[in-house]
Amino acid sequence: MQLVAEDSLNIGFDETENQKMIAQMVKDFGEKEIRPKMMEWDETQEFPVEVFKKMGELGLMGVLVPEAYGGSGFGYLEYITAIIGISKIDGSIGLSLAAHNSLCTNHILQFASEEQKQHYLPKLATGEWIGAWGLTEPNTGSDAGNMRTVAVQDGDYYVINGAKNFITHGKSGNVAVVIVRTGERGDSHGMTAFIIEKGTPGFTSGKKENKLGMRASETAELIFTDCRVHKSQMIGSLGDGFVQALKVLDGGRISIAALSVGIAQGAYEAALAYSQQREQFNQAISKFQGISFKLAEMATKVEAAKLLTLRAGDLKNRGKSVTKESAMAKLYASEIAVEVANDAVQVFGGYGYIKDFPAEKYYRDAKLCTIGEGTSEIQKLVISRSLLK
Amino acid sequence: MKILVCITHVPDTTSKINFTDNNTRFNTAGVQFIIGPYDDYSLARAIEIKEATPGATVTVLNVGPADTEPTIRKALSVGADDAVRINAEPTDSFFVAKQIAEHAKSIGYDLILMGRESIDYNSGVVHGIVGELLGWPSVSPVMKLDIEGTKAKLAREIEGGKEFLEVNLPFVAGCQEPIAEWKIPNMRGIMSARTKPLKVVEPVSVDSGVKLQQFELPPPKGAVKMIAADNVAELVTLLKNEAKVL
User: Fold this and answer.
1) pTM for this structure?
2) Where is the Electron transfer flavoprotein alpha/beta-subunit N-terminal domain (chain B) (predicted)?
């Protein structure tokens, strides 16, 4: 639950002065520190750690973390603005920023003890440490309740064996929040979350994935081999892990929705600019209805997705349940991100297919959004459950 | 040490410029405003000096109506301590310089920094006039500025080279790159900018000698004609008959 001061609440979703300043700040930062190198990172799959350190200095690594723990102390609307702004330039940096803020950091912020918060949040919120979060396993994606990574108690320690995959910052993360089974398979109270630091004996990272898009965002495997973790590293109580994870994901979906809006907006703006410069048959191609109507549809979809996302963020600020609303925002925004990026490639024509122009990267990056942190199908499951209950 | 940084509120460098009211008013519709880029360099240097000088403060000043306040808040977000807005439409350089000088007299600053010129009217004379009105030295364009006690060491660009100067405080400097790198605010700066003091001061009356009559846009750029490198005769003919510069 994240409650903010009354003046941060914004029913009409007009951009506040703070949001405008944040949008400008991330744009200035992204144009200077991300855009010049992003195609190189994309090509070589380099995860640019130094960019995240700099974002830490700007307060972007702990947007929702209260100032008392070294964070920026803003609410979800400002957080959404920051994620959209970075993702408009580079979705893979946006994804890593979102995962750091909303999964690892937010899990600790929402459910960890005061002592754990004081120890970990200042490091995470300032970007001194990069966070990872592990739920998914090779054989259990959407069906996370059947996870096979197991923690067995041995005195004051838990011994963990198993593997988590598709983990953002699986190699470079300094700390990971990992949900493992401590009870029966399929029992929603049979799983527990632990905070595990890099360097803990038995905790290593495995293969780094070679991905279609989001290539500057590191995705790797976490491997646990007789990894002994002290009970003081447990978040909340034994058996709380899965319920905590679902709540973290409620907020996480807002992140992925914002990421999707950013990618869609970036693709749309690139197509809009290109259509006004590119001439065919002696006029700008934007003068042809085939293009202008496409632009109209793209802009409308981006706007609608943004409003759904802000709406979910506003409810979250008010401490209300956002399970349905964040799933709706994530479902719609991610689907339109793919559509809008696809349309952008089409507007660019042949130039949309080559890497010297921006459209193809949005197209590759966008597809992650309908899959990560719950596929579109899972979002529909979440939405329909809440409609039919 | 008290530093005053004067900022302009100017159209973003990529803005499309056009006019309304029979070409007598700049059309601000759809235009995004920013801190003048040269002013932004001077602000960045002022913040650096402040951070290196215990007890130093930076005040930002803008002569403008209420809608310049977001631009002023941006300056506060990168680290200025407080701000003053002289509540008047800036009509010409003398008017603006007079407002700055009157305010400076009432406070007593050690240093006044601003950009070498604004990027809207680009007159580049306000720092000189402020210096004159206060009886202080003024230097422009300053590319390096280091404070050493009651003196400052400056480097400025001159025709064909650089000039190195030593100036006693207080003085006025018009700044340009590479005096400092533009500062990007952090989230905490953005949050605190809202609560930092922004004082609104009414202007002193100025008998201004300048009246704006009309704006005119430069003629659109024509197409470029490419001439083969060895075809000197055609180049001369075109320069004579089309460009009419020979």
Assistant:
1) 0.88
2) 23-210
